[in-house]
């Protein structure tokens, strides 16, 4: 028996690759952290420079849109400038506070391909007023994500790319991240106690641009997976 005032919402989940066909293993999402400006060329295109280290922001767990096959993502309300940001995502099976860089990889359950959808016009307005980014980054359905590939079967060190309607928009190399995966986990754990179920979007390479209704988005991280969706 519980005293919930109403039935609690189910935990958002992301399917896990590689189990027996139809095994239905899913990763329960606890929190979503995101790294900003983790590729130098994207930092430049957003007006930053080498004196600006990467930083964190967050999305709510229920911003997840899990895509194991081509799907649909709604064009959000309250924007006229929805941007795509293709990102490698690390999925944690354990956590803690003040995790050492050398121990950080022990926390990784697997990896996925994500898109950090951004209401860029709201972000620009927030930046101009020194206001928080929640409305720009943490809106409904702002985190499309592929299935999670277990760490033992993933090689998250290759190319990362995103195309829209068959035209390449973003391309980079995961190896060009300013903070590596273990550095990101160590840095995040200085600010939050990390735990199993946490997802970390690790930043986007250059080439972010606008999406419109009807656009077909295809994203890939070599060695990790792919995702595809149409904006509706
Ligand atoms: Mn991003």
Short characterization:
The chain is 12% helix and 33% strand. It is mainly β. The mean pLDDT is 96.
Explain how this protein is built.
The strands form five sheets. Strands 4-3-15-8-9-12 form a six-stranded mixed sheet, covered by helices on one side. Strands 6-18-17-13-14 form a five-stranded mixed sheet, with no helix packed on it. The longest helix has 10 residues. The chain is globular and about 45 Å long. The protein is built from four helices and 18 strands. The termini are far apart. The chain has a single domain, classed as Alpha-Beta Complex (Fumarylacetoacetate hydrolase, domain 2), CATH 3.90.850. With 232 residues, it is mostly beta strands. The mean pLDDT is 96. The site of manganese (II) ion has 7 residues, from loops.
CATH class: Alpha Beta
Count of alpha/pi helices: 4
Structural class: mainly beta
As a percent range, the share of strand residues is 25-35%
Bound small molecules, deduplicated: manganese (II) ion
CATH architecture: Alpha-Beta Complex
Total number of β-strand segments?
A: 18
Task: Please estimate the helix content.
Answer: 10-25%
List keywords for this structure.
six-stranded mixed sheet; 232 residues; single chain; Fumarylacetoacetate hydrolase, domain 2; binds manganese (II) ion; globular; 12% helix; mainly beta; five-stranded mixed sheet
């Amino acid at each position: 028996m519980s005293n919930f005032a109403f039935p609690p919402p189910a935990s958002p989940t992301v399917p896990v690759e590689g189990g027996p066909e139809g095994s239905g293993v899913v990763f329960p999402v606890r929190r979503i952290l995101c790294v900003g400006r983790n590729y130098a060329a994207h930092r430049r295109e957003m007006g930053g420079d080498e004196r600006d280290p990467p930083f964190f922001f967050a999305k709510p767990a229920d911003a997840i849109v899990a895509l194991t096959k081509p799907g649909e993502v709604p064009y959000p309300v309250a924007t006229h400038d929805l941007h795509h940001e293709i990102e490698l995502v690390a999925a944690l099976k354990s956590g803690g506070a003040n995790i050492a860089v050398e121990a950080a990889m022990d926390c990784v359950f697997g990896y996925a391909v994500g898109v950090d959808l951004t209401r860029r016009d709201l972000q620009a307005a927030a930046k101009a007023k020194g206001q928080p980014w929640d409305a720009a980054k943490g809106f409904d359905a702002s985190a499309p994500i592929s299935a999670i590939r277990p760490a033992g079967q993933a090689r998250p060190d290759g190319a990362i790319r995103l195309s829209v309607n068959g035209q390449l928009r973003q391309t980079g190399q995961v190896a060009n991240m300013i903070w590596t995966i273990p550095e990101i986990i160590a840095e995040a754990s200085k600010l939050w106690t990390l735990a199993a179920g946490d997802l970390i979007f690790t930043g986007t390479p250059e080439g972010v641009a606008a999406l419109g209704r009807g656009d077909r988005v295809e994203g890939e991280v070599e060695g990790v997976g792919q995702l595809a969706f149409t904006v509706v």
